[in-house]
Amino acid sequence: MPSADDVRPVLTDIIVSVVGCDPEDVEDQARLKALGVDSLAVVEIADELGRRFDLYLEDDTVNELHTVGDAISAVVHHAGSAAPAPVAAGFADAGATPTPTQRISADPERRRALRRFAGWFAVTGAAVGIVLGLGGAALVSATGLGSTDLPPIAQPTTPAPTPTPTETATPEPEPDSTAEPDPTLVISDTQVSPGQRFALEGRFPTLDRGVELQVQVRDKGEDWDDFPVTTKVRDGSGKYRTEIYTSRTGERDFRVVQKDANLETPSVTVQIG
Length: 273
Prior knowledge:
Layout: H1 4-19, H2 39-53, H3 59-63, H4 68-76, H5 100-143, E1 186-187, E2 191-192, E3 198-203, E4 212-219, E5 225-232, E6 239-244, E7 250-258, E8 263-264, E9 268-272
Parallel strand pairs: 2-9
Antiparallel strand pairs: 1-3, 3-6, 4-5, 4-7, 7-8, 7-9
Helix pairs in contact: 1-2, 1-4
């Protein structure tokens, strides 16, 4: 296993790359939060440490990383387990995990393809309509149907039915336009491998930019508990987005809450493993 002197310069390089802090501030006793490392950044740092030293830091270990020294100790005293290999369908490399960037970048390509198809369909439909219209006009002109005086259609002699009284329908109350919209939550994957990241995103329409949100998790038969990841509202529309991963297998429920405002999103279920 690497020594603390081996890990320290590598960890300094990773922290500076992720949060942009001063390398001189990265000391063993320095707290990660004071350096600008939030709950998502610490996951990224743990992943990069694992890649550099060919090891895998478990969720419980990552949750206990509070100082630079904690991160160094986690690598030096690591038991030696390797990260599980995630499975990704639809990629040329069968062992490659689709990153959130790949999933996100695929969407615009599909939207552009759909727009091209819709445009081609509209132009083709317009052309076919013009051809049929001109052909129909030529047919009417050739047969003389357009100038033929047809006899008027006789009015029916059937007596008009006696109208029956109808009940006046009671108008339904209009929806309350002042009601506040509910928070939303969308998940990028419903089944992932242990250690594979997936995205949680949605909106808290009534919250302002910068309000902190808490991710919560619930296992079967248990109560909701705080997951070690927080995020913030990104803009005035209440939009938020974060990425998480977990090595615990089985069906796990997730949701996002704002405790001070007593707001919560609907829950989503993810199959781990």
